[in-house]
Automatic annotation (TrEMBL):
It comes from the Bacteria. Residues 11-149 form the DUF3291 domain. This is DUF3291 domain-containing protein.
Length: 169
């Protein structure tokens, strides 16, 4: 069988957080003070591809994607689950994660969804919200999944079949 070129994929990620106060509230000052530095760490990470930003800004804190205006959205693209996981749990971002209860309400449903996108695709807010809602309704599936139950990229799955001598493309 003739092998065809595999389409390459990147990992899209959306997460939301419900603020305990407005961004200009003094109790939020420590969080706001870290945004630029934490984003700079992501920007410098070799596994980082893209992130949603407000027009003319370095972050997305002014974007209101939900009816509840206290909900912040983060939408990013990474080379792999491993690259994103390393950033989230082993960089300056980890200190924000440790202190998140100071600034954000505890969620009673998933606030993060991951999914594979073709290289070059830029995910939209509508797409991100749909993936998050799918995860909330159906749990981890190849369409939308979590860190705790990840799925391989379509590229990885196809390459396993080609390596085994079967090409399903």
């Amino acid at each position: 069988m003739q092998s065809t070129k595999q389409e390459e994929y990147h990992l899209a990620q959306v997460n939301t957080a419900t603020l305990r106060g407005s961004l200009d509230d003094p109790e939020m000052a420590d969080f706001v003070a870290q945004i630029r530095d934490v984003n700079a760490v992501a920007d410098a990470d070799p596994g980082f591809i893209w992130r949603l930003r407000s027009e003319g800004a370095e972050d997305a804190t002014s974007i209101r994607a939900f009816e509840d205006e206290r909900i912040l959205i983060t939408l990013t693209v990474w080379k792999s689950v491993e690259a994103l996981s390393s950033y989230v749990y082993r960089s300056a971002h980890a200190s924000v994660m440790r202190d998140r209860r100071r600034w954000f309400e505890k969620a009673d449903q998933p606030i993060l969804a991951l999914w594979w996108i073709p290289v070059g695709h830029t995910p939209t807010i509508a797409e991100a919200k749909e993936r998050l809602e799918h995860l909330r309704s159906h749990g981890s599936t190849p369409y939308a999944f979590s860190f705790s139950k990840p799925f391989s990229s379509p590229e990885d799955i196809s390459s396993r079949f080609v390596t085994a001598g079967v090409d399903y493309n």
